[in-house]
Design brief:
Helices cover about 75% and strands about 0% of the residues. It is mainly α and about 300 residues long. The protein has one domain. It has a two-stranded antiparallel ribbon with strand order 1-2.
């Protein structure tokens, strides 16, 4: 197998990992993209989608259009995401219903380790520049607070599940999907549509899938431009803000809950799985550092 085929296979599985993350309310596909080292390329690729790109297709041909789009990257990545969502939406619902403590313990380990990985290249703890450190910490705490508010909203019930509402749900959820820390699936839970969209994907209800997909595409292409601009102008501060978003949402991953309120394992009404949860937390935590090391080695080989 040549190196290009190997890279494409790895990219497909990275897409699948993002899909798994988006299938579970509480963890963001954007967080997974950051962990896997493909976030910036993903945002840059999506942000070039506009009307002028289709003029390129008309005037300069498909090859030029495909190159500007970074089409191979997007096609392989989204193939992984979509196939993963179709497969894991049903599995995710089953695991959350039957093994919530174990599932959230594993994801809590993943996300906890990712905070360190994301903050590492920033100057958040550089106390030499007083003004800069104040701005950075204000940014971190502000984004943390916003994320906490968003992920603490109660679920909306009894909404009419018409196609217009599903379209706007896709639009809103897609913005969350590419923001680390804010789960697109959790936005669907808040809007009362998580089970509806899960069922549509599992049963291939094309009307809902297509309308929801249009909302997602519009949201991704619009919001990615803003994120790319932020990364180009203020890369350090964007990473700090994204860390705040992740920190603000991490309370949703706490494994032991009673009526959606976080409690201690000793107060859990059922078997707490404490030892098993600690083991899964450690596995998830170490997995992030393994992924980071793998990505570093791949980058060294490319250079």
């Amino acid at each position: 197998m040549n190196s290009k085929s190997s890279e494409n296979i790895k990219l497909y599985f990275k897409g699948m990992a993002m899909g798994v993350a988006d299938a579970f309310p509480g963890i963001s596909g954007g967080t997974m993209a950051l962990i896997l080292g493909i976030y910036k390329e993903l945002i840059s690729s999506i942000s070039v989608i506009n009307f002028s790109l289709f003029k390129t297709l008309k005037n300069e041909g498909f090859n030029e259009f495909w190159g500007k789009l970074n089409g191979t990257f997007l096609l392989i990545l989204f193939s992984g995401i979509i196939s993963s969502l179709v497969v894991f939406m049903n599995i995710a619902s089953y695991l959350i219903d039957n093994f919530p403590v174990l599932i959230w313990s594993f994801f809590l380990g993943l996300v906890s380790a990712s905070i360190y990985i994301i903050l590492k290249p920033t100057d958040l703890f550089n106390f030499n520049k007083t003004q800069n450190i104040l701005i950075n910490w204000l940014l971190l705490l502000s984004s943390l607070y916003i994320s906490y508010l968003l992920t603490s909203l109660p679920e909306i019930n009894n909404l009419n599940e018409n196609l217009i509402f599903i379209f706007f749900a896709g639009l809103i959820a897609s913005c969350a999907m590419i923001l680390p820390g804010v789960s697109g699936s959790y936005i669907l839970v808040i809007l009362g549509l998580y089970k509806t969209i899960s069922k549509a994907l599992i049963n291939l209800e094309l009307d809902k899938i297509v309308i929801f997909g249009f909302g997602v595409i519009l949201g991704l292409t619009s919001f990615s431009k803003l994120v790319k601009w932020g990364f180009d102008k203020f890369p350090n501060k964007i990473l700090i803000a994204m860390t705040g978003l992740i920190l603000g949402s991490i309370h949703k991953l706490w494994p032991w809950k009673s009526n959606e309120i976080n409690i201690l394992p000793t107060n859990y009404s059922e078997y707490s799985y404490l030892i098993e949860s600690i083991v899964l937390f450690i596995i998830g935590f170490l997995l992030i550092f393994l992924l980071e090391k793998t990505n570093k080695n791949q980058n060294i080989e490319k250079d």
